[in-house]
Specification:
The complex is a heterodimer of chains A (101) and B (234). With 101 residues, chain A is mainly α. Chain A is built from four helices and no strands. In chain A, helix 1 crosses helix 2 and helix 1 packs across helix 4. Chain B has a single domain, classed as Rossmann fold. The model of chain B has no long low-confidence stretch (mean pLDDT 94). The chains are: A mainly alpha (101), B alpha/beta (234). Chains A and B meet through helix 2 of A and helix 2 and helix 3 of B.
Chain lengths: 101, 234
Amino acid sequence: MKKKEIQNIIFNAIEMTNNMREDHRQIPLTETTELYGNNGHLDSMGLVAFLIDIEECLLDEELEITLSDEKAMSQSKSPFRNVQTLISYIDSCIKDLHHGN
Amino acid sequence: MAIKNILISGSSRGLGKELAEYFLEKGCAVYGCSRSERQIEHDNYHHFQLDIASQEQVSDFFFTLRKKIKYLDAVINNAGIASMNAFALTPVETYQKIFAVNVQGTFMMCQKALGLLKRADNPCIINMTTVAVPLQLEGESVYAASKSAVETLTKIIAKEYGGFGITCNAIGPSPIETNLIQGVPKEKIAKLIEKQSVKKMATPADVINLVDFFLRPESRMITGQIIYLGGISK
């Protein structure tokens, strides 16, 4: 899967999140959007819902990836900080999946 | 209206089979699983043979299920095992087996189903507990302890995922004629029924009534509740 396709999946998940939010709490659809942590738009439960939406979209592509696992949580810098870091993290998970890790 | 997709574990016999047949009769699509082979023949019944205590098998099951359906209206975690023994005589293997099915199985089924549930209009999870928890029945320490864990999971899942519109409740049936109580002496069952407000043996229909209630869209404000049959309370 190309990074652009991963970005589209993330943007779709942001749109799903935005559908549930008031106008003044909309999350911008940009690569630099802060997601989680300092200045992030999502709290911990918001992040869980968001990651579940992404996992479901990846399953639509027959990619079974658990994003919020210990691997992600144990990283000193959260891969969920912003859209760009999340794209890179999903890309690495897909590569691991294809290499059978 | 879209067809309701219902997932029922332990659907090959007893209460699980009755629940599956009830929802098929109502026009739902039922996705049943059990360790044994399918016992229901119906166009809308889809059976999966697996052990819910196995992480790998549950994971594979949901991967396959995900290819068939895009949402789940309800997950009924009916599969469970019991064992009667004095606490001091209970082998640790029994403890491990009961917790693996009753607690870990319920945990994994709930966790894996979240994504599919989130896509339904009025999603709900129904877990099964037992009156052995509030009655603190002798001889059922491990079984009751495992169901206490299920009750706590139920309440916390309800809190965490209420924001997704997912309700999570548990039903504690009083004694019903199923395989689960086959090994329990008749006198013990009679004594147990004496402790109930409604001094009668329950039937699968009593449980189905409650499941049906939890599944109604009008029940969307009812979550994190543990309801015992027969008038037993904590």
